Amino acid sequence: MNAQQIREVLTDTELPSSTRLVWAYLNVASEPQNNTSLVRELGLSHPTISRAIQPLKHRGLIRRHNGVWIPEPAQ
Asked: Are 19 and 9 in contact (CB under 8 A)?
């Protein structure tokens, strides 16, 4: 992941701020995260995390592997 890719996702105003926060956290977290750990770590509700994940999956920015979310390089 390079600085340009990070900038593109973090400044994408089509993505809600909670979605950008989840994506950024997944990229810097020291351990793989699932929805429950994201709720705990970010202080967001389960529905907010679920809504935030959908556009990330749709854009191919994250994928689920063994029950945790794995960030993918921005396209």
From this structure: no
Tell whether pTM > 0.70: yes
pLDDT class of 74 with cuts at 50, 70, 90? low
d(CA 24, CA 29): 9
Say how many CA atoms lie within 13 Å of 35 toward its Cβ.
12
**Buried-exposed string 24-35: b where 16+ CB fall within 10 A, e elsewhere:** ebbbeeeeebeb
Read off the tokens for 27. Answer: 């990229």
Query: Which residues lie across from 33 on neighbouring strands?
Result: 69
∠ CA 20-32-71 to the nearest 5 degrees?
Answer: 45
